[in-house]
Structures
1.
Amino acid sequence: MDLLLRPFQYEFFSRALLVAMLAGLLCGVMGVYITTRRMSYIAHGLSHAILGGAVLSYVLQLNFYIGAGIWGFISALVIQFLTGRKIYADAAIGIVTTASFALGIAIISTYRQFTKSFEAALFGNVLGVTPNDVWVVTCVTIALLALVFIFYRPLLFWSFDRDVAKVHGVPVLAMDVLFALMLAAMLVTTLQILGVTLIISAIIIPASIARLLSDRFGMMMIYAAVLGAGISFVGIYLSYYFDVASGASVVLLSTIVFGIVLLWTNLKQRRKRRTLDSHLL
Amino acid sequence: MEPLLEIKNLACGYQAQPVFTHVNLKLYPKQLSGLVGPSGCGKTTLIKTILGLAHPWVGEIWFRGQKLQPGVSPPKVGYVPQVETVDWSFPVTAEEVVMMGRYRRRNVSPFPSKRDRQVARELLYRVGVEDVAHQPIGELSGGQQQRVFIARALVGEPDIVLLDEPTSSSDLRVQHELLHLLAELNQQGLTILLSTHDLNSVATHLPWVICFNHGIIAQGEPTEVFTPQTLKQTFGGEMVVIREGDRILIASSLSTLRHRMQDNLPSILRQTH
């Protein structure tokens, strides 16, 4: 028992578990919107774009969350603006996000002193989160979940069919802006935990598992939230014993869970088909 | 009688390219009309302009005697989009899709109420697909999907419903069923405008047709409007029009017409055989 509880004697580890669970839950819920709207690439790109904002806010001595958040929000809006003007969505994402990421690298190469922070931003450093980070992640998670709750109906309609939603009175432009803000807020707060390179897995894997388990949007959100939080908890907990990077541990575990659920749902479907066939014969 | 929807000198396009110009149209309450024209002639853009989804270059749209602001949807309108534009893998059930249409009638709760659910069920029953209420939209047949979308268009209790190519990807039986349903809804007092490029199986069944190709070519009852000249102007090719009583048959050549009719040749065609 002592062996199982040993990681919890370290305050930084308990903090990491709490913050990773919140980030996993938030990414899971937002991931349902992102995957069903086929926006995985935009989320992946924006996480890179935000690095530019993070570095710039460091140089300009602005608060990281505010500077990077505004940067991410503007990047999302610029992508939306370009997409409506003969530029394909994936090309617009590529242009804006790589330019922003390149700006971050250019500044880093000029100010060589923050190589370590750069690594943390790329690969995440959940064990290094401060009590202040815990507060920020908690507040942002509560705020975004409240927005998802309040705007559940218009966001669902907007996600499914933007044009028809507009005809039925959904303020679609306001939804575009709201979602860009939510996306930027989520990426900025979870960037330091999972890192630019691994954050996308926390967004798309729990949502994809939830899609295998349910055909209902609301149920998918519940599954993705529980899976996101649970996988983050177990992944970080196991990283202590296996002595591997915590971010990598979470991603690998979620991929294993995805594989198991995929196998299980396929077997279940096959069994159902076989039962149906035997009834027909 | 005052028109329900009036379009005055409307023009619209994308970039610098006009899609249609000089469109003047009046739709009266309880009218069932078909917007007929070839693919790419601007039918969808006209529907989207009426719905406020595309900004007109010039012109005005009036709804129930009130001028609509460009880009603003009319207040009581239902819309059934082309099936090709819908993401059928989206995780929603038929009932959830119909409840989306209750957005204007929502209460303070962020989730659909019991009343929303009840009304959605009633509408699904009315269009004949109540048994698929809990099925994912992607698992339904093409005809069932169209019926669910018609139910969503109706659930907000609209004055007019616009349908964009509702029969484009359906077989003849489903087309017939959908047209029957629309005629039934029209008899109950609903104003309907549907677009189609299918002359024989759809357009000839409608009481009022508007021939369209980057502008209105002609409008009226099919027996008056479907002449070889009008059809040539609309579709850009020679067409054969055969009339027998109230029936009209249209084809690009006599041999196509004979093939289509097979054993059911009308007497007039038998004489030309």
2.
Amino acid sequence: MAYSEKVLDHFKNPKNVGTLDKSSKAVGTGLVGAPECGDVMRLQIQVDAASGIIEDAKFKTFGCGSAIASSSLATEWLKGKSIDEALAIDNMTIVEELALPPVKIHCSVLAEDAIKGAIEDYKSKNA
Amino acid sequence: MGDKRLIYLDNNATTPTDPRVVDAMLPFFHNVPGNAASRNHPFGWAAEEAVDYARDQIAKLLDADSREIIFTSGATESDNLALKGVFEMYQRKGNHIITLKTEHKAVLDSCAKIEKMGGSVTYLDVDDKGLVNLIELEKAITDKTILISIMWANNETGVIQPMKEIGEICAKHGVLFMSDATQAVGKIKTHPKELGIHLMAFTAHKMYGPKGVGALYVNRKNPRVKVTAQLDGGGHERGMRSGTLNVPGIVGFGAAAEIARNEMDADAERLSKLRDKLENALHGAMEEVYTNGCKDHRMPHVCNVSFKHVEGEGLMMTFNQDIGVSSGSACTSASLEPSYVLIAYGLGDDLAHSSIRFSLGRFTTEQDIDDTIEMVTKGVNHMRNLSPIWEMYKEGVDLDAVVWSEH
């Protein structure tokens, strides 16, 4: 199976790889997937308390090229968005942007779940 | 496939056709166009003569009688013919077949079909090295058992089963012994008579011959084994396999067999050294690297390695512009199930997802291996830098205690 140019680009030069301080109140962490299933995504957001804007996002992913590209793309999209805007990111927009084939749609679902997980974690810390 | 030098380490999937084989085949497309079954003109005679010659070349490789070689379209057809053909032919004797969970799908799916046709099949476990338990095998035999089907060498790991001992058990109990020897023939010595094998499936394209032609060895004496034909037609191949013979393919198969007979020992010696170099270098360069399957009973050109906390298909993407290998990861399959072979060896799903199969071949060079070591090491390090579970592992997190969200 050949990958799209966009998947290859994110895979070779992933954006925003890294780790934020998960104990910080400003950071929300979403960890989804399982090693047994062949993919685990950890997506983190750092939110500016005053504006409510996501000022930084980082990821690490264990998985195939599409999983890595989906999470890399998600972090790019998250930066500069408000929490509500971030919640509106839909897995199908990731599918379209990366031209993922049907067998790889679960990678985009995982990315959406990771975004939602990170926001939930941030909200519970700041409730 | 432009000018860039590509490294092919997927010889268990298929081997490049040896140029000497191609040369042998070429006259049989146009210059010698006959049908080997045309018995009444020179075109047919020439084709038949070429097929007979190839049959002899193959029989010599197996130390068998040329009348014991039945040509087919490939190993999948040979497996189907052997299993279903024996099941139909020996129905009055019994309906029970014993095989392994680690067999190729051509065997497992034929067995599943046989179960639907009223047969009974026992699928035996293997140990953590991938080897059959001979005591369990013997215990599984009943008075209804007609056939034991055990592959010579596994396609994913190269693990070689104890064929001699299995043959002795079959002889003791009067059960037919069939082997899918696709990965072994032409690479190591495979003499069925010496080991009590009655049926043996193999194919040209795993031994530097062309795709689309295979064979089934059918033992001719003591006992005289018969299989019910699965294709109806002109009654070719002693009534066991109808269909016009693939003359150029068979000529190539024969040439490949003769080259293998002359060169396989030297190939095996050279390739096992290169394989060991690759395997040792990968183990030496990185931590948490595991070899899957028994290292003491293994094909000389194969190694199957897991790189913990790295997903196999993702890892392949780091170097698949340059190197062709296979992975036990299931990321491309809709089922999300990793290799059933490695799971049967007792590997966790995580390690199975992390596996890469390197299979070397006659045209693999030392430079290929040196480049592969460099690119794979770089790829594993890249993927581990991206891997949250590698980070957790390095921080000392007990990964088994983490509650994962299965999906």
3.
Amino acid sequence: MASAGEANVSVSHVEKKEKKQTPARYWKEPRGEKDGNDHEEDGGKTLHQEEPRPQTTKKRKQDESPAVGKKFISGKSDPFPGQAPIPEDRVQKFKRKDKTKKHRRQHYKLKAMITCSEEVSEMAQKQAAKFDLLLPEDAGFLEGEEEEDTCLISQEDIADAVDITAGAKYFNLKLSQFGPYRLDYSRTGRHLLLGGRRGHVACVDWLSKQLMCEINVMETVNDVKWLHSEAMYAVAQKKWLYIYDSNGIELHCIRKFNDVLRMQYLPYHFLLATASAKSFLQYLDVSVGKEVAAICTKTGRLDVMCQNPHNAIIHLGHPNGTVTLWSPNQKEALVKMLCHQGAVRSVTVDKSGIYMVTSGMDKKLKVYDIRALKPLKSYFLPAGASCLSLSHRGLLSAATGDIVQVYKDVWSTAATKPYMAHRTRGAVWGLHFCPFEDVLGVGHGDGFTSMLVPGAGEPNFDGLDANPYRSAKQRQEWEVKALLEKIQPELITLDPNELGQVDRATFEQRHKDRVEALGYDPLAQKRFIPKYKKKGRSSAGSIERRKKQVAHEDQRDIIRQTVEDKVKMEKQRNEREKKKAVLNSSRAALDRFKK
Amino acid sequence: MDKVSKKSIKNCSSQTPESAELNPDEVYIDEAEVEELNAADENIICEEEDACKDERKRQRLLEAISALGGKRKRKLGERSEAAVQMSEFTVSGEGEKVNLSDLIGTIDKNAAIPAKTKKQLKTLQQSNKTVECPLSKQESERIQRDVAYQKAASEVSQWKGVIKQNQRAEQLVFPLNQEPSGPKPFERVLTSWKAQTPLEQEIFSLLSINKQPIHDPILTPTEEASLRAMSLEEAKVRHAELQKARALQSYYEAKARRERKIKSKKYHKVQNKHKRKEFLKQFDEMVKTNPAAALEELNKIELARMQERMSLKHQNSGKWAKSQVIMAKYDEGARKSMQQQLEVNKDLTQKLVTSLNNEEDSEIEEVSAEVTPAFVKDAEEGLDSSNPWMRGKLSAEPREKQTSDSVDLTAEGFGGNASEDEEDKHNVAETEEEALLREFDNRRKHRQIQEADTELILCLDDDDNEDKEKTKNAAEDLDTSDKEEELSQFTSLMQGLTDAHWDIEAEFAKTAADTSSQLEQSFIKIGTLEDRELLSQEDSAAEKVPVKPQLSTSTENPLPASPVTEKKRKRKRGIELKHVLTKETNIIHVPLAPTFRDSEDLDESLDQRQLIKEAFAGDDVVSDFLKDKRKQEDTSKPKLLDLTLPGWGEWGGTDLKPSRNKQRRFRIKAALPPPRKDQNLPSVIILEKRNSSVTLHQVNTLPFPFENHAQFESTIRCPMGRTWNTEQTVKKITKPKVVTQLGTIIEPMNRERLGKKLVSPGSQDSVKLS
């Protein structure tokens, strides 16, 4: 109807377009509108079904709502009527639930609720699919010339080929004094933390190559880890766990955490999980500084550890070839898998939480589907892999001695040779992909190497979650928000959707849990202990008598009631019988003939 | 019913209070009131006659004085004789009571009173019923309240729709009656707009002439008409009717066919006679109800009579009749048949006498010829016209849409030539139907046979199952006894072995009836081999079976995949752990060879140990894991509850054990737990313990409108936060239920809103154009 108004306006300006035939009015061809509606309906489902007609005008009216007539005043129809279609596969990507079946006999409230939730989910899905357009960046890739192995392309060649800023990301730090290095990138991918085995700890803003701090802790350093932001990091030293700030000032020395070998930080729970040489798995809540859980795994030295970013479960590798999955809520391993015939050397889990890659002493590399707990692929590496790391986009890096290999698509296709390979100057000690960058950091005996691995990093970052370009102010804002949205450690489960499920445990089961949690049975009745009385009135007999007086107090009422009922019934029956008898006994006229 | 009763109650209630109020008034009349009334009365009188003014004044004075005295006194006498001082209201109770009968007595003589009232009064006199006393105040009030409540409820219930709408609305914005923001339709904005230019006027006139919609794309009148033509329900009803009619027709056809096939002459004779009688009866009726049709019938009869008179058919002149005449002397039957024929002749030739006169007949005849439908006429024309009674039926039954049927009947009776075609048709139809029926019958039989077969099979299956169960039970018993005697690991392993056996067998019995026995055997062998290997490992370390070195396993090629082997492998996957571990591996060739050793010099000793471990990798890893798994399974198994007490019912002592019978009786087996999650995953142990930490945050009872878990879970499945949704979606999801505008007065809903609801929004905005 808005268009009608416009048509009306156009009538006054007809003179300008005299050379054309009479202007088309909306009432002349109601067909156009119908077409438009059709398109609007199936717009959500399909790609561009009709090829764009050869129209001279590509103009599209901006403010026109789809419900209103589709015709322009000029008589030309909208070449792209209705809403822009969303590709089906993209919609599918954001699917969260299946449609629930509706029955005719449902309660109207239920019906309304279901339709509402379905509507909302569909809208969310569509919107997300639409906004997916706003992720413009593509992942990079490395492509060799014909019959050229990509794994033979050297890092120098790549660095020369790419632009200067990207080329600058390939560099070596020669730190031969303080022995093999462990490393960690912050969650934004901007900061690098290096921990040399002989006590050298340094944090660097590696993009700008700015050294933030450099200290020597004068102790063996087993592992280093950034905490929630680049302001703090944890260092697992020879005996205790220490926390330093970005200026290298020691903030805490946590004596409860001793002999820590490996650490993992769970960013959404603010938990620092540590695995110690004494086979203890401990969780430290970084936001409040409290130990959440300490689990004795009873499996010996724990020097293989990783986390599942999907559900915050900790994976531990053991010398007996098993990988165990842990949550802070249970004292036993949630899952124990036998993965290798030898000891497990390294474990890593995909970002989506579907795939787990393990390497063992039997020189094998195995890929597991962690949801089904089934092996998918098995590779034999002649030298075995000591360190593993998975990038955001699923590239796997494995270190065998001083060689770092990068594999593509280890789970979908059977890889026969690496995607890339690079020889470092010492035995590899730590391996980590940089988030949101095509960079693999390698800590080795002779320092640190930053490798270029095209296609490794996720090109589109979430600015609200981990923004590599955030300012100090933004970081503060983010910190507050993240603390507010902190997930409690109780909610760590194997299936993160479990919280949304109805607890189907029986009442008995729940009661048992309650008793366990409280330490006593709240529904249990108090035992009656008779008071002690003097002058021989507390003899055994009298105590028994007194006990008897209050025995079965709860059942008495019920019993009394039933007894009363019974008596009443009996009475009624008697009366009825009596009446019957009277009726029978009254003499009928013919009774006199009876004998 | 309800309404009626309520109405009556209402009436009652409206009457009763008045009477209740009146009663006391009649009894106690206030003195003052009486005075006043008297005064008024007297005023009227004094206007008419002034003579006795003084006397009245005196009287009033006296009254006033007496009133001062304070004593109530009845001053006015009763109306018994002509007097000046007479009260109009009181009737003193003295003297004779007046009965109704006394008053009514004069009625009979009075002619002026209508008979109806007389009658009523008489009945009143006769009935000895007392008038019911009026309802008590409480009761009447209750009824009044009830009625008032109903009234109010009906009024309030008008709002139900609006309220429900508001309750169900996603969002309510107060104040409610706000103009919707946004663009308005142009008709509403430009109410005064008119077609001004000649072009516009022309267009609108054209539109109005062609009955085209002007504003919205409303339907044109023709479209509406076409929509209105026939609804779906109507069509359905129509279809059902037609179907029923067809079914009825087929029934009648079948009946007619059956009857026609009967060969008994006697039966047909009786039938014909009956029909004739029926026809006559019908004819008589028709004369009354439908004279036109009756006339037609009459005509036909007349025609038949004429033909009969012309022909010699029943005149005892045929060949047969002549022979009968000869036989008649000796044969009673022959005589009778002759007689009958003559009677038929007589019947046919007799002229029917009707009340209708002939001239009228002829007129109506023409009309009726026009009125009767064509198909009826056709049928009649094709008929042998010699049997008028059959026609009666024909004309009577077209209501039931069985013309063809009735035609058939007539044809049957006398074997008319014209109806042969139709007969053929029927035959065809009949054969078709019969074929169909036969088919159904065959199918039914077939099904019955099949059912019987399946029952047999089932029986066989049952037998099999029973056998298996028996054997299994026996095995279990064996197991338990073993356990008792010595609880060593060996036995547990044995048990595991046997269990595995049974499991495998059961599985096979369940699913693979078609697989060959050979396959089964090989399969079992594999399972047992595996276990045996374990046994040997445990029993003696010396006997350890050397595990294949890695290289050999790694070079293992996948077997050629024939369908049978594939099937086998599928089975195997659930059981063989070794297989899982030695999954075929891809060897990766790295162009660069490592020059460094992995481990550092710092933990040399550890490295040594690891090297040793590497060398003997896989020796005990698998068995350890299996043991661990078995242990887990055992702990999760429900424990046997043993309630046997030694010495009860038998001898007790140090070396005496309770008998087996007793043990069996007093051992309570707990119900089997649900199958473990890692049942089919040999290399995985999944913890079955409940995680009570999450349950604190979970919902443990289904909220109200939900009927099952799936519904509820799916409704809370979608995240709501900004982290997972776009801004628009978040805003929509977290829209507040009620929005109020600051500083505005929220007034209660008024009646206008109710009216607005009733009137559809489309009909409101109509603008006159041109």
4.
Amino acid sequence: MRAILAKELRQLFHSPLAWGVLAALQLILAWLFMLQLEQFLQIQQRLTTLQSTLGVTALVIAPLIDSAATVALLMTPLLTMNSFSREYQQGTIDLLLAAPISSAAIVGGKFLALLLVLVCAWLLVAAMPLSLLVGTWPDIGTLIASLLALALALAGYAAIGLWASSLTTQPAIAAVISYAVLLLLSTLNLTAGAAPDSPLLVLSLSFHLQRMLGGLVGSGDLIYFALLVATPLLLTVMRLRRLRGGG
Amino acid sequence: MEALLRTNQLCRRFGAVDAVQGVDLELFPGEIVALLGPNGAGKSTTLRMLCGCLTPSSGTVTINGLDLQRSPFAAKRAIGYLPETPPLYRDLRVDEYLNFCARLRGVGTDQLREKRERVKSLCGLGDCGRRLIGNLSKGYQQRVGIAQALIHDPQLIILDEPSSGLDPNQIVEIRALIRSLGANHSIILSSHILAEAESVCDRVLIMHRGSVVFSEPLGRLSEPDQQTLTVVLGTPPQRETLAALPGVAAADALGSGRFELRLEAGCSSGQLARELALRDWELRELSSGKSSLEQVFTRLTTVDRSAAGA
């Protein structure tokens, strides 16, 4: 698995794609962060006068992480689309299938490599709200919950992207499948009048993300994200087994 | 001697199509075997099953006494595989790629450099280590493909059409490389070029429609067949007239005064030449026919095709 991880990281960072995605993510979020902060400074006086309970955590950090999750949703499929599609196209999948390693190790190596790139993105995003510690004291619990939510969402995006990439030889089609699945999961909660225990809400990515951005970390949310990561990874392993003809 | 590779009734179905049916193979240490057959005969499918890329629908593959399905990791360590399209990452350098392939097969860090340099010198890649694979010529890419199959020093090397797409000089080089590898490894290679099998292999297997229809040592097969002759006549008679000559069993017209004559047992080419010279047909050329391998190949792989087409 370490051999695959090292090879994937080398390929990801050799290509301008990972650097481009990281740069674009940082640029957009830095701009949004600045806008949020500017708006907050404008209304700060009024909030104090109104004795509002809303502070920098609710008005700057939560929207920033929410935006980060959305921008990452648009960027991650571009990172993941080549993972398996390119192996199919180049015929290098035979190199992996003929090697004395398991399908799970192939998937695990590729997933960890993607995760490491996304950890870079996560650290860059996390640096922005953490920089506020210099001048103010945000709600640390909510901040941690928000950053955890972003990390889990990124892992989920990577897992879904990896699975989509294992389905097709065309990277563009892999990206389309990722977008379709991720956008569907993100908009399931928009159904009008959904009850709090509606299955659509429970399946919705945004629902769990918003709860955690509000500082609420329930075991249900953690299980949801664990399944969001584990299910596509399992499906990818099964897909590789089917490729060998064993499934 | 214990066989290094043995398959038992290997079958593979794709939907309703039987790509490979009931293949029994044996490969002994130090042997180079060619798997011949027309396109679509099931050669690549068979080789992919031998190296564990494809699971057989039924049947078993045993390598070094280990069942490939039950002990895949141990069995696969003994195999080096070059698919039809060399499995290369064009954006990696040759050294990076070979290091990756070595680690993938469990070569330790302490042996990595030594093994990499050994296969590079073996495959003539000595000064290519820092070059990007995508920038190499097709011939050198093929060498890198062979180098990756050898890097972990496997006992069994499986090469799927190793000389496809190469120019004549490169083909000669690759064949020489395969011959030199045969000294220390067992090799099974697929090809649809008969000359390739004749020049490097000890034994040939011919596949047709998913089955092995022929398996013989090459030694006597590569001798030209003395019972089939090709003649060229300046003023040719009817085919039937030629077929009726004493000692001629059958005659086929090949066009432009060229005929293929099959002799009866006991009739020599000298006798036929005399018969032809006695007649006023202006004998221009008399040569031995196809090699036995070519004849066997043509007979086994075209008979059903004409039947199927009818």
